[in-house]
């Protein structure tokens, strides 16, 4: 296996929301989406990240191996968009699999065609963000088309890969019943989604947008109430899904 360098924003150890158990998380930089609520806008441009050797990261991952084995965790590659650097991703995951470490990739699915069979085999769990169902809403929220994400989700279902779906609930933007129910119905039809996370919108990234000189369009949008978040979760439950 040859080393590959990739653009990395940061790494975090001990994360507990990006996959099962305690995770070693690599946040890569570079993302083709422009989500209005992105809380890591500094990961959007690839070259803003630091060029990093996959082998160096793997050395660090190796030092956490015992900890993964006892805690049931593993390596998660998040971002940014991990599929924007497929060779770097492949090297990281291949190294992790050689060590017997569980692997997860957090993706919007927009670049799903970059996942070849070899890369597919190296990923134990996909954390797939389906940001909306209504195509015009998806485009408004992310700046790109919805279809590639749906096509990728269907491909994962055909291959029976394990998927956790994430959906961010933003008042006035993604919370229309038609939008939430559309995602719920679609996800339920796939048959391979073992968990859904409905995440209430928050403005934690707003300062970063300002620091980067980028206009944050959701300054006046409030977080959803706990009741509204629970109602959205209930919609997914109504379709028989396991919701967190
Ligand atoms: S896909 Fe993720 S990293 Fe990319 S813009 Fe959207 S929220 Fe930000």
Q: What features would you describe in this structure?
A:
By secondary structure, the chain is of the alpha/beta class. It has one domain: TIM Barrel, CATH 3.20.20.70. It has helices spanning 54-62, 65-71, 86-98, 117-121, 135-142, 147-158, 177-190, 206-211, 226-238; strands spanning 5-15, 23-28, 50-53, 74-78, 102-107, 125-129, 162-169, 193-200. An 8-stranded mixed β-sheet has the order 3-1-2-4-5-6-7-8. It is globular. The N and C termini lie far apart (38 Å). The protein binds iron/sulfur cluster (SF4). Iron/sulfur cluster is lined by residues 31, 33-35, 38, 40, 43-44, 79-81, 108. Iron/sulfur cluster (SF4) binds at residues 31, 33-35, 38, 40, 43-44, 79-81, 108. Its EC number is 1.97.1.4. Its cofactor is [4Fe-4S] cluster. It is found in: Cytoplasm.
């Amino acid at each position: 296996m040859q080393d590959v360098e990739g653009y990395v924003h940061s790494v975090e150890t001990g994360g507990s929301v990006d996959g099962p158990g305690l995770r070693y998380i690599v946040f890569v930089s570079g993302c083709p989406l422009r989500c209005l609520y992105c809380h890591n806008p500094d990961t959007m441009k690839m070259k803003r990240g630091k060029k990093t050797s996959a082998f160096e990261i793997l050395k660090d991952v190796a030092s956490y191996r015992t900890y993964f084995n006892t805690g049931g965790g593993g390596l998660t590659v998040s971002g940014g968009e991990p599929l924007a650097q497929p060779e770097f991703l492949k090297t990281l995951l291949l190294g992790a699999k050689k060590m017997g470490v569980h692997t997860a990739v957090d993706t919007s699915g927009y670049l799903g065609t970059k996942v070849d069979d070899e890369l597919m085999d190296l990923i134990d769990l996909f954390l797939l963000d389906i940001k909306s169902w209504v195509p015009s809403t998806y485009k408004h929220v992310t700046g790109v088309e919805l279809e590639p994400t749906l096509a990728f989700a269907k491909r994962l279902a055909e291959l029976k890969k394990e998927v956790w779906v994430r959906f961010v609930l933003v008042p006035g933007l993604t919370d229309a019943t038609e939008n939430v129910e559309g995602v719920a119905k679609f996800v339920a039809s796939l048959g391979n989604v073992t968990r859904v996370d409905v995440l209430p919108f928050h403005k934690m990234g707003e300062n970063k947008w300002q620091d980067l000189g980028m206009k944050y369009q959701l300054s006046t949008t409030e977080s959803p109430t706990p009741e509204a978040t629970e109602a959205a979760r209930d919609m997914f439950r109504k379709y028989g899904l396991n919701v967190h």
